[in-house]
What we know:
alpha+beta; seven-stranded antiparallel beta sheet; 4 helices; 26% helix
Amino acid sequence: MVFKLWKISFVLLILSLSGSQAIKSQTFTRQDTLRGSITPERAWWDLLHYDLDVKVVPAEKHISGKNTIRYKVIASSNLMQIDLQDPLKITRVIQDGKQLSFKKDGFAYFISLIKNQKAGEVNELTIEYGGVPVEASSTLEWRIYLEKRWQWPGFYRHLLSGNRGEYLVAK
């Protein structure tokens, strides 16, 4: 009986050690880090409000719009990270009437701010975007795509053409 308990304990020890090795060997890409971390480019500002203006053109299967972001400055910085999933793309960023430059890195966009960002201030900027979303052949296919690729369980949007030439934009 003692030998049997020792044997079971030994097997459990080996299994737990091998499991910890699997966790240690897991590697994360830069994109994983950008999507899943509070980067310095996100940490300095606190989102207060999104004002979305979206234009859907079903006949062209195109989406475009503006997102005016109101935020509170927590610490001074001049680089802001905003995420936008492909195939949508940021086309222009404006703050106080001035066009800002930005760089894309995967799904992350890094916006260079001109205005001095002072702690405690509330500021706004407007991001213009557009693109042709991925067309799903079925609701289930689109849902699976979003849940697996973008880790959005239970959330999906799609644009489908109906049988009679009607369009369905749905959640």
